[in-house]
Design a protein that fits this description.
This protein is an alpha/beta fold and about 270 residues long. Helix content is about 45%, strand content about 15%. It has 11 helices and 8 strands. Helix 1 packs parallel to helix 3 and helix 4 packs parallel to helix 5 (about 110-135).
C-alpha cells in the first residue's frame, strides 16, 4: 500500500484491535485511523502492540466531543466532554497521532453562528492542550444527515469554524466534491488540513451512506488529489469506505481495491 494512504477503522465496523491488526497486515497499511472509543477502551499499550513493529502508525483519532448532546445544552455538559477529550489527547500524543478529528455536537436550537461560538468556547481548553501535546484538533464537513453530531456540512463551513475556533481541517471528499469554488476552498484549507478522506459516489445511489470504492464512481478523485498536492498538502489520504456497496463486495476486498486505485493516482502524480 502507498505510504500516503491511511485505512480508517470504520471500513471494518465492529472489529476489535486484534482483528484490525490482521487487516492492516494483509493490506500492508502504513497508516491507520482509529475511533476514540476503541483507543480509550484498549489503551495506548494495546494499540501500540496492534500496530506491530514494522513502522505502522496512527494517523488520526476520531472523537465525538459531545455524544448525545447539542451545543445549546450549556456549560454543564462541557466539563465531562473536556475531560474525556483530554484523555483522548493524551492517548493520541502518546501514539504520535498528528490529528484528532472532533465531531462538534449538533446545533440544537442555536443558529449556526451561535453554535460556532459555543463550540469555540467549549473546545478552547482542549485545543490549547492538544497544541501543547503536539497534536491538532480538526473538524470535517459531515453530511447534513449527521446534523445531530456536527455543525459543519460544507468545506466552507469547516473553514469558517476553523477560523472561529482556531482548529484544523479535515477534508471529506464525499461531502464537498460538488461544491462551487472547490479548488479555491481546498487551497484555503491545505495550510491547516490534517487529513483528506477519500471514497467515491455512483450517480443515483440512494442506499445511504452510499459510499463506493474509489474508481467506481463519478467523484473526480484524481483532479481533487492533484489540487490538494499543488496547494502544498503533504499529509495522508484516508480511505473511509462504508455502506451497502462496500458490504456486498466484502470490506477487505473493497479497501484493497481502493488502496490500489488511490495509490496509482499518487504514483502517477509523482508522489
Amino acid at each position: 500500500m502507498h505510504e500516503r494512504i491511511s485505512v480508517h477503522s470504520v471500513c471494518f465496523p465492529g472489529a476489535g484491535l486484534r482483528e484490525l491488526a490482521g487487516y492492516w497486515r494483509e493490506l500492508e497499511a502504513h497508516r491507520v485511523t482509529l475511533v476514540s472509543d476503541l483507543v480509550l477502551k484498549e489503551g495506548t499499550s494495546a494499540v501500540q502492540a496492534a500496530l506491530g513493529e514494522d513502522g505502522r502508525r496512527v494517523e488520526l483519532v476520531v472523537h465525538a466531543f459531545l455524544p448525545g448532546r447539542h451545543l445549546d445544552a450549556g456549560v454543564e455538559c462541557w466539563s465531562e466532554a473536556r475531560e474525556t477529550l483530554g484523555r483522548v489527547i493524551e492517548h493520541a500524543a502518546a501514539l504520535g497521532a498528528p490529528s484528532i478529528q472532533v465531531l462538534t455536537g449538533g446545533h440544537g436550537a442555536l443558529t449556526w453562528e451561535e453554535a460556532a461560538e459555543a463550540f469555540r468556547d467549549a473546545i478552547a481548553p482542549c485545543a490549547a492542550q492538544a497544541k501543547g501535546a503536539g497534536t491538532a484538533l480538526i473538524v470535517e464537513n459531515a453530511s447534513g444527515l449527521y446534523a445531530d453530531v456536527n455543525i459543519t456540512h460544507t468545506l466552507r463551513d469547516v473553514l469558517t469554524l476553523a477560523d472561529i475556533a482556531d482548529v484544523g481541517v479535515c477534508v471529506e471528499l464525499f461531502g464537498c466534491w460538488t461544491e462551487a469554488g472547490l479548488r479555491q476552498s481546498l487551497e484555503r484549507a491545505m495550510p491547516r488540513c490534517g487529513i483528506v478522506q477519500v471514497c467515491d459516489y455512483v450517480y443515483g445511489d440512494r442506499s445511504l451512506p452510499a459510499r463506493a470504492v474509489p474508481g467506481d464512481g463519478v467523484i473526480p478523485i484524481r483532479r481533487i488529489i492533484e489540487w490538494c498536492l499543488q496547494a502544498g498538502y503533504s499529509g495522508a489520504f484516508d480511505l473511509e469506505l462504508i455502506g451497502p456497496r462496500i458490504d456486498r463486495e466484502s470490506r477487505l476486498a473493497a479497501v484493497r481495491r481502493a488502496a490500489k486505485h488511490v495509490g496509482g493516482i499518487l504514483g502517477d502524480l509523482g508522489v
